[in-house]
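Let's practice the habit of predicting before peeking. Look at the sequence and jot down your guess about where helices and strands might fall. Then scroll down.
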Amino acid sequence: MIAGTLRQFEYFVAAVDTGTVSAAAAHCRASQAAVSTALNDLERALGMQLLVRRPAKGVTLTGGGRRVLPIARRMLADAAELSEVAASEHGEIAGALRIVSTNALSPRVLPVLAALFAARHPRVALDVSDGLATDVQEQMRAGKADACLLYRRQLGEDMDARTVRVVQPYAVLAADHPLAARDELSLAELSGEPLIIVRAAESSRVIEALMEEAGVSPHPRWSFSNPETVRAMVANGLGYSVFSGRPNSTEAFDGRRVAYVRVRDEVVPNEVVLAAPRGQRSNARLDALWSMLGEPEVQAAFG
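Done guessing? Here is the structure:
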């Protein structure tokens, strides 16, 4: 007989992932009292303490809790798969699907994916979030996400990945820049101007590799963690940047505009990839995600 219920294990995993009982309650759409009681009941049923709970300091795993956590995650994943099997008998796809994306890609693709899942697979409990490339891959390794979207140049060696789209580099210029009306340009034509980049280490390395392949020594000026800040600074004529792919919108937050000009230098193009930890099993939800990523409206969102 299994000690503890799936709901109790769900609350336990949520408390670990969110860091506090109150955040776990909000995540699971339950009351804080219900989550706290369930955790106490689970520890009593198992005969061991799983969490150390300190007011205002959140929760910390005990040694026993660290051993139970991966088992709890597998139990919840197997339960979700069981629901999926039952739903498939009626021709439906159901269960939880957690997608994470890098900040650079999330505003382009997560809205269209969420809308498609809502319309076609309403029984899929979709959870989407974003972050830095290192963070989203760490979520994958920790079992907090099922798949992540990022650029291949940012990919860790322990990840399996499938190419979603090959994207060309584009120079990002102010709309009134002398080269903004061009179809293409060489990065050497911008070498004397200040370069504005995304601060994240992975993004910086992508730009550095691109510049090296083009034989250009850039003059970095500013870096920001938010790609939209980079675009706004460029729109105000304060420098240029380089993006992988061409976003659909040319408008920055302040209403000013940028132009995207294709880079003609012979550089290795970047790839948007769907990544997962090596050896991860697929399922109907992941198969549906992969199918959607190939559809024209999703492909267009990548630029």
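How did you do? The longest strand covers residues 159-167.
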